[in-house]
Design a protein that fits this description.
Blueprint (H helix, E strand, L loop, with lengths): L1 H4 L12 E5 L4 H11 L9 E5 L22
Parallel strand pairs: 1-2
């Protein structure tokens, strides 16, 4: 997922903040991909990876959130 969302950050969309939700065992891999691909001059916290179970209620709700699902199940 990081290869999709990383290009969206930076100069084109400087106010964009992204949350990558993955299985707990995949979060360290996602974090490593973000660090490897994200321009270090961008603000810390632009892209965050966190553990989330797809079958539990979404912790983020409201107008400020959009969701993109890829490779689900």
């Amino acid at each position: 997922m990081a290869q999709i969302v990383i290009p969206l950050t930076g100069k084109r969309f400087p106010g964009l903040r992204l949350i990558i939700q993955e299985r707990e065992e995949v979060v360290p891999i996602a974090e490593a991909n973000v660090k490897a691909r994200l321009n270090p001059t961008l603000a810390h916290g632009t892209v965050v990876a966190e553990a989330h179970d797809f079958f539990t209620p979404q912790p983020y709700t409201g107008d400020g959130y959009n969701f993109m699902l890829r490779h689900v199940l």
